[in-house]
Specification:
Blueprint (H helix, E strand, L loop, with lengths): L4 E5 L23 E5 L1 H4 L4 H10 L14 H4 L18 E3 L1 H7 L3 E6 L9 H18 L6 E5 L3 H13 L3 E6 L5 H9 L3 E5 L3 H11 L5 E3 L5 H7 L1 H9 L7 E5 L4 H15 L8 E7 L4 H7 L26 H10 L3 E5 L1 H13 L6 H15 L8 E6 L7 H9 L20 H15 L1
Parallel strand pairs: 4-12, 5-6, 5-8, 6-7, 9-10, 9-12, 10-11
Antiparallel strand pairs: 1-2, 3-4
Helix pairs in contact: 5-6, 5-9, 6-7, 9-11, 10-11, 11-13, 14-15
């Protein structure tokens, strides 16, 4: 098969653009672009054939890459020698029956996207974007000399790691004092030029868009549709891990909104090509202090009204003016989706319940878990329905959040499930007594 993909405007403007051009928005209307695949060419293989190829891992370059096992659906014009892979994707999908019971759900699974090279789902998109830049620079006629992004932590870590692997200079713009130490040190360690700005994420995003108007610096945020092509594989991977069946619901944390539109894009393509036979419903989970999508949903998606995002433990989704709003609304409408929010107390307790069930959830996953429980209590998620929650980052990136919860020092969090260490004298009798009390309480 001769496969190809290209850019087009999401608003339907005429025009077709090369995916290796330095372009992010429609030159006619300013809307975002999307990558379009030649579905007629892809449909030359039946859905059963695609399932068999994916199960065999055909297309993998780099041991275990869940993204590049689906090369034909991601970026078919990319030559294999230019792929920059760090083993991204193929992350665990875990059944969580104890956590399901705690949240009032019957059938809960958690997709552990944080079990990845840099500890977040951002690796899925960054392998595609950096690989494309690698090919552009290898051609010798591209103006691109560096890559750049604004970030609340995870995007910068992924960009810095993949750029370092490719030998491409990376620049990251971070809101000073608003990300965890573990997130800050990742791009520093990978050799990126880290610029800590006295602003929030939305302010950093404005600056990086201004700077990347010079085509020598390539924009790596999710408004760049190449990122979506990697991130869309998570939905396909979920179906694959469930034996090519589809859950009733997928719930995911939502900030800049590129991820939910990516999820919908991958699942829609799988349905169109007969790889899956139905679509799940989607639930976008927002932190109450950074909830522009939720507020728009309450108004019937009449418009995006940006908010000033407040301080939240879910720092990666502390975004008041999401770039991918239009794409996300289209995805939610196509998938009969809903939007719900969680406050600081709810997200922190949900993350603690996940930890007590053997996981180690980041605060953003706590938002999604809290929302899943809320939707079940509201009757939106019905008894017996299968729910997959996407865990977007590894909990080890948020140790300060974990420590604060169990020390009882997080603002606006009652910490109902805190488990502080017990100070005792070095006396066997005192130790036995404490163990006895603890076991009695647990029983």
């Amino acid at each position: 098969m001769s496969l190809s993909a290209w850019y087009r405007c999401i608003r339907g403007c005429p025009g077709r653009y090369d995916v290796f051009d330095v372009i992010y928005r429609c030159p006619n209307c300013g809307g975002l672009l999307e990558v379009v695949h030649d579905e007629a060419a892809l449909a030359q293989r039946a859905g059963a054939e695609w399932r068999a190829l994916f199960d065999q891992g055909v297309g993998v370059r780099g041991q275990g890459s869940g993204v590049w096992s689906k090369h034909a659906w991601v970026l078919p014009q990319l030559r294999t020698e230019n792929i920059v892979s760090l083993g991204e994707g193929s992350t665990p999908l875990l059944p969580a029956p104890r956590l399901a019971k705690s949240l009032g759900l019957d059938d809960l699974w958690v997709k552990q996207c944080g079990v990845s090279h840099t500890g977040s789902f951002k690796d899925l998109g960054m392998t595609v974007l950096v690989s494309a830049v690698n090919q552009m620079m290898a051609a010798g006629d591209s103006p691109v000399r560096a890559v750049a992004c604004a970030s609340t932590g995870d995007t910068s870590a992924a960009l810095a790691a993949y750029a370092a692997a490719a030998g491409i200079p990376a620049i990251v713009f971070l809101p000073a004092g608003k990300i965890s130490t573990a997130q800050l040190i990742q791009p520093i360690a990978n050799g990126a030029r880290v610029l800590a700005l006295d602003s929030d994420f939305d302010g950093c995003m404005k600056i990086v868009q201004e700077v990347t108007r010079d085509n020598s610096i390539y924009l790596a945020n999710s408004m760049n549709s190449l990122r979506v092509e990697g991130q869309k594989t998570v939905g396909i991977e979920i179906a694959q891990q469930l034996g090519w069946t589809v859950p009733d619901w997928i719930v995911l944390p939502s900030g800049n909104l590129g991820n939910i539109s990516a999820l919908a894009k991958g699942l829609a393509l799988a349905k169109a090509l007969g790889v899956i036979d139905r679509l799940p419903r989607l639930a976008a989970a927002q932190a109450q202090r950074a909830n522009p999508l939720y507020l728009a949903y309450q108004r019937g998606f009449d418009r995006l009204a940006p908010v000033t995002a407040g301080a939240t433990a879910a720092s990666a989704i502390r975004i008041g003016a999401p770039v991918s709003y239009e794409k996300a609304v289209a995805a939610l409408q196509a998938f009969d989706g809903v939007v719900e929010q969680a406050d600081e107390n709810e997200l922190a307790d949900a993350a603690a319940l996940a930890d007590r069930a053997g996981l180690y959830a980041c605060p953003h996953t706590g938002v999604a878990l809290a929302v899943a429980g809320k939707l079940a209590r509201q009757g939106v998620i019905q008894p017996g329905q299968r729910v997959v929650v996407i865990s977007t980052a590894h909990g080890l990136k948020f140790s300060e959040f974990k420590v604060g919860y169990h020390e009882g020092t997080l603002a606006d969090v009652a910490a109902r499930h805190r488990n502080p260490p017990v100070a005792l004298p070095a006396d066997a009798g005192a130790v036995r007594a404490e163990i006895g009390r603890w076991l009695w309480d647990k029983n």
